[in-house]
# Entry
Amino acid sequence: MKNSVKKFGLVNSIEGYSYLLLVFVAMPMKYAFGYPMAVKIAGMIHGVLFMLFCLLLVKAWIDSKWAFSENIIFFVASLIPFGTFYTKSKIKAYE
# Structure
């Protein structure tokens, strides 16, 4: 049980940082410097990490048996910038 929650927490953090990289590095490279490939690469990485995040969220939810409402909060927090920091603090209770 704890292993799936730890994996979820790790991917949660990496996915959050990939979003920041996409917004604050790749987007300026595309629009300020005319390098659209940066968004394609960072966007693909972020997309794959988000899908992995969703899969691990379900696995951790099943293994840890946390409330469905908690699962929804974790998912919604992943859609909000810096929401992953909220999720990370809540995950500590399940580790």
